[in-house]
Each structure stands twice: as C-alpha cells, then as structure tokens.
Write a structure and sequence with these properties.
about 250 residues, 2 domains, 6-stranded antiparallel β-sheet, 13 strands, binds uridine-5'-diphosphate, Phosphorylase Kinase, domain 1, alpha+beta, single chain
Length: about 250
C-alpha cells in the first residue's frame, strides 16, 4: 500500500495512514500487556488470531445493522478500517461478575448479573483508565448525552448478538470492552477490536474455573496454554461463521 506512515503505536496494534485519508491500516501485534502494561509478553500468533476473529465478528455485526469501522483484511494480521476519531471511553459490558467488578465490589467471581451492566472507563493509560461516573463523564465533556444514549444502546445490542453468537460456539461471554469512534459525518461506528484480548470467554465444555478460561486472563494470571486457548476461540468462531454462511 502506498504512502503508509505510522500514525500511532499502541500496546497491541500499530495504526498506519494510507493513500486514502478516509482509510487507515491497523496491524495487530503478538505483544501482550496486562495491568496497565506493568506485565509484558508475547502470545505467539495473537496478532493474526485477534485480527481474523475481530474481522469475522465486525462483518457479522454489520450484517445485523451495527455500523463498524471494518473494511477488509489485506493480510491475516492487517485490517483496513474507516478513519474515525476515537471517543476516549472504554465501554465495558458485563454479564457475569469477574475481574475489576469483583475486586472493587466484593461480588463473587462467576455470579450471573440480573441484567447486563454497562460501565464507562476513561481511556487514559497515565491515569490507569479510571471508572467514570456519569457526572464525571459529562464534566470531562468527551461525549454528549445523546451520543452516550446511542452508545449504550449499541453496546447492549452488540452484547445480545455476541452472547448468542458465542453460546453457539459453546462459549460464555462473561464481559468485554468496546470502543467507538466518530466518522467524518459524525456517525458513531464500533471501532478497535473484539477478540480474546478484550473479552472474557469461558469454555462451556469445561467446568474447572481455570480450564474454562479462553481469553487474556490466561496471560494475566499465568494459567499457561495461552496460544492454544486463543486458537480454540478462533477455530470455533470461524467454524460458526462458516456454518451460518452455508445455511444462508
Ligand atoms: N478490558 C480491555 N482493555 C482494558 C480493560 C479491560 O479489553 O484496558 C476488557 C477485559 O479484557 C475484560 C473487560 O474489559 O474482558 C472488563 O475488564 P475489567 O474491568 O474486569 O478489568 P481487569 O480485571 O482486566 O483489570
């Protein structure tokens, strides 16, 4: 691709410009970080897996009426995306208590929540991505009330679709993080990625609380077999997409 210039390097991806100002190229890396980059490592093949899983899920969500930044994948670890201005909020949707929700509230891990919980974290590594109250969100003036309503509605709709999708892969969607961006027409698009790096995924064919983990918690908690868990997620997601494509 002509005229590529590195725009930004994040913890898991590098963003390049392209010869079209409306299009950016994202390269997914094997680098893994956790605990606000205090823990660093590599997960072999992660870049390709996260890129192909995200691409498959973005394409599928688009077909269900969710606008995303996805265009196509020129190679297995590269994704062409629509250029958006990222809204600096990490939107977390939770179906089951885990991670920081348990640490901060004392809820037991694995408790099924009565309804999905939507939370907003400030996307700012220097501040440690703090949990925001609604008043703080509006105080910071990073989003309008109308945009927040739209984002929450999109996040809950995505959750319903993804829960069904992963269930058909024999996977429980515990929680996940989304990012949204605004395109040149100020339309809100789902951006970033949806992958084992950004979701908690539990294998429904396993009952053991460690054996069932198929996501970045294997890396965070040194559970081992990280690569094979990511590969398993990829294989099940792609097989499910293929099955649906065949059945029309
Ligand atoms: N998450 C993410 N990026 C972040 C923080 C969280 O993708 O910077 C995802 C994480 O993988 C999990 C969900 O968001 O699926 C909720 O994470 P949590 O707040 O429980 O944080 P953690 O326990 O990972 O610190």
């Amino acid at each position: 691709m002509l005229n590529t210039e590195k725009l930004y390097e994040g913890k898991a991806k590098i963003l390049y410009t392209t010869n079209n100002p409306e299009v950016l190229l994202t390269c997914y890396k094997d680098d893994a970080t956790a605990f606000n980059a205090q823990k660093r490592g590599q997960i072999q093949g992660k870049g390709e897996i996260n890129c192909t899983v995200s691409a498959a899920l973005f394409k599928w969500l688009e077909s269900l009426g969710i606008p995303t930044h996805y265009i196509d994948c020129p190679t297995p670890n590269q994704m062409r995306v629509k250029a958006v201005k990222i809204i600096p909020i990490e939107v977390v949707v939770r179906n089951i208590a885990a991670g920081s929700l348990c640490r901060q509230t004392g809820l037991p891990e694995g408790k099924v929540l009565p309804s999905p919980l939507v939370e907003y974290y400030l996307k700012n590594d220097d501040l440690g991505d703090p949990l925001l109250t609604l008043d703080r969100l509006f105080l910071l003036d990073i989003i309008s009330q109308a945009q927040l309503v739209a984002i929450k509605e999109m996040a809950l709709k995505i959750n319903r679709h993804l829960q069904d999708f992963f269930a058909s892969c024999q996977i429980t969607l515990v929680d996940f993080k989304l990012e949204f961006g605004l395109d040149s027409q100020q339309q809100i698009l789902l951006a970033d990625e949806i992958s084992p790096d950004t979701c908690r995924l539990w294998d429904r064919t396993e009952t053991d609380p460690q054996a069932r983990v198929m996501d970045k918690d294997r890396f965070r908690k040194d559970l081992g077999e990280v690569e094979s868990a990511y590969q398993k997620v990829q294989a099940r997601v792609l097989a499910q997409i293929e099955q649906w494509q065949k059945s029309g």
